[in-house]
Amino acid sequence: MEVRRSTRRKRTVSARVEGETVVMLMPAGLPRAEERRLITDMLARLARSGRRKRTTTSDADLMRRATELSDRWLDGRARPASVRWVAAMTTRWASCSPDSREIRISETLREVPTYVLDYVVVHELAHLVVPGGHPPEFWEVVHRYPRTERAMGFLEAYSRVLRPGAGTETSGRGGGPDDSGEGVGDLVEGDDDEFGRV
Predict the structure, then answer these.
(1) pLDDT category of residue 106 using cuts at 50, 70 and 90
(2) Which domains does the chain have, with CATH numbers?
(3) Which long-range contacts (CB under 8 A, 24 or more apart) does 167-170 make?
(4) Which of 21, 24, 114, 119 has the largest CB neighbor count within 10 A?
């Protein structure tokens, strides 16, 4: 997501999709809390309008995409046994089992922009390269994907769209698709607690 602030824009806020990026246009003088609220509202409208194309429709498509991402960003080192969609998870966007090399992606992510889904897949693939949590070496692998920070920001906002009121400024985490405030958790480097794993 990209936010463009304009000194000429006084009251109106709008959003549009440019390629794979949601661009928000808003007045320059808005308080940050108001910006966050408007971003959340606009993302909800875009999600409801269906203007984001569905990028990966089948498990086979998802597996192909994971292979492409591994080849491009991880030097082909991550080779999952399977990558598949699963019913909306309650505390995670996705999960990886390094022993079985299985990756599961929540149906909740079917409608997100391609770069966001790609980030989540790269994050899970990185668990196959650096198993055992989220040490600095893990994040080095994840950050090879150039849109990591942008995708993290999108997921933070998207979690609030799915569950309004999730993630307060004091928590530093966006809450996820469930009622416990989890789901974004380990998307943020250095936030390696027990909650909200991808």
Answers:
(1) very high
(2) 2-49 (no CATH), 59-187 (3.30.2010.10)
(3) 169/33
(4) 119
Res. 188: pLDDT tops 70: no
Residues in the chain: 198
| Least-confidence region, from 56-60, 67-71, 81-85, 97-101 | 56-60
Distance separating alpha carbons of residues 39 and 79, to the nearest angstrom: 36
